């Protein structure tokens, strides 16, 4: 048999074939299932190797693979996460199902935001406290409610962070590794903060920027700003600061360094995306900036943006009137360009009973949870949380069903 014959792999030991297959791109690996029964069995076994598919996710979806795994349905393999991320370009052809939960029946149940946590739990921030739900059943979870009226809420595996209307910041550690260390801490006169893994960055009313390290709840003053700070962003291991004066600064480990100005000749949305301010910017102020800079804002939902969520190549835009738009890859010359892009999906969540005279139904938050062969898009409004479930059906070859 010639060495360059395509059949020489059939006589190689399985261990060597597996080793060779692990160097193939993901889609080429799945195509190998069609060669013969032996290759099919080898590839099927490789789909259960989490470490391999985690590397595929990291290579193909570097900006979103960690958060996709953290917020995915419980017990989902990395192979399934890779497959779901690969399916987003085909969302226009997916089957849709709608559902709702956490409906507000009184003013005390008004919804502000939510957090998708690990193991299929959703923490919903209502006016009366933090209520936890099961992501599978959309029913109340066994976890106890945190009662109280709070302005802002964030949570991860280790920490709960709550800001009161009196501008007090409460940091509560859920996991105590050393009983000698403090379990919680409170800071006063805090106007904004962000939670990033094991650190919390916060800004006082005097525009002093601090970091609180969650390992031991120690704090450090990073910098004092002469400008009035509006938002914090964090990306590429750097802290970014957006001021009311439209200045963007970056903390380089020693001091704040001026980065750019949101001026009339710049793509404002792209800069907010580039420096991770989309989740924290004040959109009312953004619209004022657009007016002051004589920038064009089209009629319709994009004139009343209230939330923008970028998830890899997918961009979700929510308006003040309950309109959700889903875009896929709305980029021009590698810049976010919503105004010249068309959505692949659009929904209007405003109900007739809500709208005798066009009453507002703002979309306050959008997030995603990946599932097997599909996606769950969760949309929060003051009165309810809507769930859009997209499921992909495969009618072609087995390899397409494995990985389109």
UniProtKB/TrEMBL annotation:
Pfam families: F-box-like
Residue intervals of the F-box domain: 6-56
Domain of life: Eukaryota
Database matches in InterPro entries: F-box-like_dom_sf, F-box_dom
Name this polypeptide is given: F-box domain-containing protein
Organism: Parnassius mnemosyne
């Amino acid at each position: 048999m010639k060495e360059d014959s395509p059949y020489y792999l059939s006589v190689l030991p399985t261990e060597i074939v597996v080793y060779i297959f692990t160097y193939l791109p993901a889609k080429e690996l799945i195509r190998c299932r069609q060669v013969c029964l032996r290759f099919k069995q080898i590839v099927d076994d490789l789909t259960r190797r989490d470490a391999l598919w985690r590397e595929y996710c990291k290579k193909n979806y570097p900006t979103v693979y960690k958060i996709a795994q953290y917020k995915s349905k419980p017990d989902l393999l990395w192979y399934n996460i890779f497959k779901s991320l690969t399916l987003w370009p085909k969302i226009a052809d997916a089957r849709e199902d709608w559902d709702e939960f956490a409906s507000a029946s009184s003013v005390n149940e008004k919804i502000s935001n939510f957090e998708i946590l690990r193991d299929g739990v959703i923490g919903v921030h209502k006016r009366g406290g933090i209520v936890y739900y099961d992501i599978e059943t959309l029913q109340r979870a066994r976890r106890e409610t945190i009662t109280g009226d709070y302005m802002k809420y964030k949570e991860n595996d280790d920490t709960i962070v709550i800001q009161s209307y009196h501008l007090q910041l409460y940091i509560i550690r859920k996991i105590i590794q050393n009983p000698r260390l403090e379990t919680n801490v409170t800071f006063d006169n805090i106007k904004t903060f962000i939670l990033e893994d094991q650190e919390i960055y916060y800004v006082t009313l005097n525009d002093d920027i601090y970091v609180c390290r969650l390992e031991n709840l120690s704090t450090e003053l990073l910098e004092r700003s002469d400008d009035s700070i509006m938002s914090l962003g964090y990306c590429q291991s750097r802290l970014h600061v957006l001021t009311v004066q439209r200045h963007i600064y970056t903390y380089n480990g020693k001091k704040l360094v001026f980065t750019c100005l949101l001026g009339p000749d710049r793509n404002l949305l792209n800069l907010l995306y580039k420096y991770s301010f989309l989740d924290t910017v004040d959109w009312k102020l953004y619209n004022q900036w657009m007016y002051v800079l004589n920038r064009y804002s089209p009629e319709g939902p994009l004139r009343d943006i209230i939330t923008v969520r970028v998830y890899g190549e997918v961009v979700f835009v929510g308006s003040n009137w309950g309109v959700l738009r889903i875009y896929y890859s709305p980029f021009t010359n590698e810049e976010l360009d919503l105004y010249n892009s068309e959505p692949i999906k659009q929904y209007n969540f405003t109900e007739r009973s809500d709208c005798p005279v066009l009453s507002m139904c703002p979309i306050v938050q959008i997030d995603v949870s990946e599932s097997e062969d599909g996606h769950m898009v969760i949309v929060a409004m003051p009165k309810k949380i809507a769930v859009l479930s997209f499921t992909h059906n495969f009618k072609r070859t087995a390899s397409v069903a494995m990985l389109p």
